[in-house]
Amino acid sequence: MGKFVITKRTNGEFQFNLKAGNGQTILTSEGYTTKAACLNGIESVKTNSADDNKFDRKESSNGKPYFNLKATNGQIIGASEMYESTAARENGIESVKTNAPEATTDDQTA
């Protein structure tokens, strides 16, 4: 089962990573100024990850596939790593869909 891991950046902002059951990071958030906003971001991932249309499939300037998960308002709530192939990116999206809805939260800032 997946889990959201909340950490604090060196600039004091909170962020979360969604990790798959094997510990691999499959989604990384933006920086949030408050823990409450970070927790709201996690809830947004849980809600929006069920909708394939919320996954924005992209390609980086060096040709590597990746994706962003967007909220209903179009704001990016999480970004993936860079993948070696579009098939690997699709596996990453499926992993977010599978892991996010039931993921627990591990707050490492407490």
Question: Could you characterize the architecture of this molecule?
Answer:
The protein is of the alpha+beta class and 110 residues long. It contains two helices and seven strands; from the N terminus they run E-E-E-H-E-E-E-H-E. 25% of the residues lie in helices and 32% in strands. The radius of gyration is 13 Å and the shape is globular. Strand 1 and strand 2 form a beta hairpin.
Short key terms for the protein model shown above:
110 residues, 32% strand, three-stranded antiparallel β-sheet, 2 helices, four-stranded mixed β-sheet, globular, alpha+beta
Number of helices in the DSSP assignment = 2
* Estimated share of beta-strand residues: 25-35%
Shape descriptor: globular
| Low-pLDDT segments | none
Structural class: alpha+beta
Mean pLDDT: 96
In helices, the fraction of residues equals 25-40%
Give the biggest beta sheet. Answer: 4 strands, mixed
Distance between the termini: 22 Å
The helix/strand series, from N terminus to C terminus, equals EEEHEEEHE
The tally of strands reads 7
Placed side by side, the strands forming the largest sheet appear as: 3-2-1-7
Q: Could you tell me the radius of gyration in angstroms?
A: 13 Å
